[in-house]
């Protein structure tokens, strides 16, 4: 006797529809993959355009400093012509008895000392706000955040009056001392200290007999090295490119930073002995070298900061 199994019509229909569903799923997957591939090309194109936009001015500057006065104005600005770089460098470092070297050294001193002082003050202040509880802590943070809303240009006139009364006008301290205090750097150090320095480790150091100053200088500064490098680099670049502050507070030419000095050359327009435009372009390229060297030298701090959050 044969055993006959009856299959419902609904099941037969479901079985018959499965190949079509599978084909539709495959088509859906292929369309999604094509959309993702197209989006990747769009993102890649945008990134290439932004890279060209960022590198384009630097390429033009490199090309321009290799040209003489005639080729600078008559040849293609994005490609080389007659090589005249060594002559431009010689004119740059010998014009006005080598005043450019003096300006460059002044900029290194102003930016370096100011950034070192700011880094130490900001790390100490941020460490104290983050790791100690005291009355008025919230008010302190409120004042720091509120100071972000004050434009720096509003502080020039009262600072000028203060520095004149203190006898600091037209001195190097007018450039170094104001750079040692920055509310944003304190806020950045405070945020970083909250996550980088465990309170339990500080308690263990206190149990071992370490004082608060020793804990900060021996342990806190080492854990805040990445934050310190960030604060130092940000302020160094800002101080290196500053223009308005030395224009107001420095009168002697020998005390000028490099940006103000090159502006004075550019504002003069012409000189019968040398092309001032070529000098300004060559000086602009030379003035970027210290910042590039600093970024490369402190690169390991940036790498450690990027990978810090992935470690436990």
Report on the structure:
With 312 residues, the protein is mainly alpha-helical. The protein folds into 2 domains: 56 residues; 226 residues, Orthogonal Bundle (MetI-like fold), CATH 1.10.3720.10.
Task: Reconstruct the topology from this structure.
Elements: H1 9-64, H2 69-74, H3 85-94, H4 99-131, H5 137-146, H6 156-166, H7 173-176, H8 183-196, H9 199-207, H10 212-223, H11 225-240, H12 244-249, H13 258-268, H14 276-297, H15 299-307
Helix pairs in contact: 3-14, 4-8, 4-11, 4-13, 11-15, 13-14
Overall body shape:
globular
Q: Please report the first level of CATH classification, the CATH class of the largest domain.
A: Mainly Alpha
Strand content: under 5%
Helix-strand category: mainly alpha
CATH topology of the largest domain: MetI-like fold
Total strands: the figure is 0
SSE ordering:
HHHHHHHHHHHHHHH
* Largest sheet data: none
What CATH architecture of the largest domain do you see? Orthogonal Bundle
Q: Compute the CA-based radius of gyration.
A: 31 Å
What is the first-to-last residue Cα distance?
72 Å
Mean pLDDT: 84
Task: For this entry, give a set of tags.
single chain; 312 residues; mainly alpha; MetI-like fold; 15 helices; globular; disordered C terminus
Structure, briefly:
The protein is built from 15 helices and no strands.
């Amino acid at each position: 006797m044969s055993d006959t199994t009856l299959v419902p019509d609904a099941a037969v229909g479901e079985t018959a529809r499965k190949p079509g569903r599978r084909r539709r799923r495959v088509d859906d997957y292929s369309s999604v993959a094509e959309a993702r591939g197209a989006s990747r090309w769009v993102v890649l194109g945008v990134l290439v355009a932004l890279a060209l936009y960022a590198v384009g001015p630097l390429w033009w500057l490199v090309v321009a400093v290799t040209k003489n006065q005639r080729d600078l104005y008559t040849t293609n600005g994005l490609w080389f012509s007659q090589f005249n770089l060594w002559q431009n460098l010689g004119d740059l470092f010998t014009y006005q008895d080598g005043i450019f070297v003096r300006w460059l050294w002044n900029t290194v001193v102003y930016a370096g000392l100011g950034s070192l002082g700011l880094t130490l003050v900001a790390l100490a202040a941020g460490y104290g706000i983050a790791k100690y509880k005291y009355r008025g802590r919230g008010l302190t943070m409120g004042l720091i955040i509120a100071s972000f809303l004050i434009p720096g240009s509003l502080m020039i006139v009262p600072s000028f009056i203060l520095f004149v009364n203190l006898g600091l006008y037209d001195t190097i301290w007018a450039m170094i001392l104001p750079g040692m205090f920055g509310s944003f750097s304190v806020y950045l150090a405070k945020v970083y200290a909250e996550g980088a320095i465990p309170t339990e480790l500080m308690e263990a150091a206190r149990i071992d007999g370490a004082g608060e100053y020793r804990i900060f200088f021996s342990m806190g500064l080492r854990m805040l090295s990445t934050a310190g490098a960030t604060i130092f680099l940000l302020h160094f670049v800002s101080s290196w490119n500053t223009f308005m502050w030395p224009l107001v507070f420095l009168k002697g030419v020998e005390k000028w930073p490099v940006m103000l000095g090159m502006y004075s050359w550019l504002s003069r327009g012409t000189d019968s002995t040398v092309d001032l435009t070529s000098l300004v372009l060559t000086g602009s390229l030379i003035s970027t070298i210290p910042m590039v060297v600093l970024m490369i030298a402190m690169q390991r701090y940036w790498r450690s900061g990027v990978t810090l959050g992935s470690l436990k």
